[in-house]
């Protein structure tokens, strides 16, 4: 009987450990909880990116040709959105970035930096009706330099190439802050952003390292 009790206890511990790992990986969620909660460590690391010089990259476009990042921050602020094509977090967040791009068209440039095969990346752009250019980052080099270890990270770069803010995810609060800061840096009035379907808790995305 004692051996059976120990066996069930070990099985229970193993099951609990597996569930914790699956939760942390975003495979399963508790009701009302984000797949990948933004931690205090993530916030602190993101805050350290402010006022750094942006690093210039030339990327292959998802559609055709090349994209030079510095050409997009030369005279307008640039919002860079880090994306994984099969990540449910990127899919959930995409409508808000689409909305920002349309609301500030002509006053803000937006660039998607997407890590994934070309076909998957192209399909993502079409299926999600992404209104801005997307550049491919197959090895995750751009994401690593900009300290974006997960999808749904985004960085606002001032005209001239200085990092203004790095966000480690999205939520109603983060999107409201993002919207206000974009308007401020662009020197324009803030356009209302519909965050009805955004999460209440700060939520990040899937790992860029996988």
Account of the 3D structure:
The chain has helices spanning 2-24, 40-47, 69-72, 88-103, 118-127, 141-145, 172-186, and strands at 58-61, 66-68, 78-83, 109-114, 134-136, 154-158, 162-167. Strands 2-1-5-4-3-6-7 form a seven-stranded mixed sheet. The longest helix is centred in the N-terminal third of the chain and has 23 residues, at 2-24. The chain has seven helices and seven strands; from the N terminus they run ααββαβαβαβαββα. The protein has two domains: 1-32; 34-186, Glutaredoxin (3-Layer(aba) Sandwich), CATH 3.40.30. Mean pLDDT is 87; it is low at 1-31. It has 210 residues and is α/β, with parallel strands linked by helices. 39% of the residues lie in helices and 16% in strands.
Write the layout of secondary structure elements.
Layout: H1 2-24, H2 40-47, E1 58-61, E2 66-68, H3 69-72, E3 78-83, H4 88-103, E4 109-114, H5 118-127, E5 134-136, H6 141-145, E6 154-158, E7 162-167, H7 172-186
Parallel strand pairs: 3-4, 4-5
Antiparallel strand pairs: 1-2, 1-5, 3-6, 6-7
Order of helix and strand elements from N to C terminus: HHEEHEHEHEHEEH
**Separate helix tally:** 7
| CATH fold call of the largest domain | Glutaredoxin
Give the biggest beta sheet.
Answer: 7 strands, mixed
Core attributes:
single chain, seven-stranded mixed β-sheet
Précis, in short:
With 210 residues, the protein is α/β, with parallel strands linked by helices.
